Amino acid sequence: MLKSVAVLCVLAVAAALPYDPVVKKLENGERFQHIEDGDGTLHLADTWLTASAVATPRYDPDRQNVYHLYTRQNPTVSQPLLMGSQGLLGITNYNPARRTIILIHGWMVDVTAAMNTVLVPAFLSAEDVNVIVVDWSAGAGSINYATAVANTVPAGESIARFVTWLNGATGAVSRMYHIIGHSLGGHMAGIIGRNLGGQVGYITALEPASPGFIFNDDKFRPNDGAYTEVIHTNAGVLGYLSTLGHVDFYPNGGINMPGCNSQECDHARSYFYLAESLTSGGFTGRRCASYVTAMTGNCFLLGNLRMGGLVPKTGSSGIFYLETNAEPPFSRG
């Protein structure tokens, strides 16, 4: 009797819950996964796209993306850029003769993401450049992870339109750009590049996300730019496991970074390594036969390559392994 009452209670509760049918599954496996946002906080995320998520107000990147310009003339307080507004552009410190860096944050963060606080000053210290930080939090901020993954495509297409407008308004050219994305933004950096015809001079994917992209045709591709580089620091867990770029680096085997005691720390190390490489160089990888040998450190092929840095290694390709220190300076020489 008690068992029958318990069953009836469960059925009554289930009937009272709103029905939210699943529209799309990102990939096979567990529906709810712990996924890290752009600042290293883990969230229990729904990786299946539901009807309620689809029914929410549609993300409009042309209207909702915000572009923040930093230069050596304004290194800490950004100047706004607005697609289509040449008048506003004309009163900023943007200079088309300089190289332009575009930074793309990850899931559930915004312009204040830790990646940006590390890389903006590093780039401005290393070179007189334009740094444009894209705030696409209107698309990245959904707690439904599947929605944020879906938004990477329209967001990337919109940023490509912004770059096309900026080039047309100023005479800048795509080969003078370096686009950098972290985690979810890592794949989006590639989407931007391919929508610019693969003409961007330098694209770096920092720990491109694994969840939602294993079987996703929109993931980062080698030919998204003239030179594409990937830095893996939590490969196979929060970050993508296998190779994606012209060049893929697996520092310390791509997982379990020295000085880290969590996956979140590993995931963040990628942008700290890039920041240090801008001023010191230092990170020299040795060539590997495959990402499997890179992850085990059994790399003995001829040929070394510097990881990161200001200048694209156009024409280079391959998989590389290197070791780092547990604390700054992370480079061993």
Question: If you had to describe this structure to a student in words, what would you say it looks like?
Answer:
The protein is of the alpha/beta class and 333 residues long. The protein has a single domain, classed as Alpha/Beta hydrolase fold, catalytic domain (Rossmann fold, 3-Layer(aba) Sandwich). It is 32% helix and 23% strand. It is built from 10 helices and 15 strands. The strands form 3 sheets. Strands 6-5-8-7-9-10-11-12-15-13-14 form an 11-stranded mixed β-sheet, sandwiched between helices. Strand 2 (32-36) and strand 3 form a beta hairpin. Helix 5 runs parallel beside helix 9 (263-280) and helix 7 (145-170) crosses helix 8 (184-195). The relative contact order is 0.11. The model is unreliable at 5-17 (pLDDT under 50).
Low-pLDDT ranges: 5-17
In the CATH hierarchy, the third-tier topology is known as Rossmann fold
- CATH class division: Alpha Beta
N-end to C-end Cα span: 74 Å
CATH superfamily: Alpha/Beta hydrolase fold, catalytic domain
Overall morphology: globular
Largest sheet, in brief, is: 11 strands, mixed
Give the amount of beta strand, in percent.
15-25%
Q: In the residues, how many domains can be counted?
A: 1
Oligomer: single chain
Q: What's the SSE pattern?
A: HEEEEHHEEHEHEHHEHEEEHEHEE
CATH architecture: 3-Layer(aba) Sandwich
Mean pLDDT: 90
Measured as a percent range, the helix fraction is: 25-40%
Q: What is the radius of gyration?
A: 21 Å
Strand order of the largest sheet: 6-5-8-7-9-10-11-12-15-13-14
Structural class per helix/strand content?
A: alpha/beta
DSSP strand tally: 15
Number of helices: 10
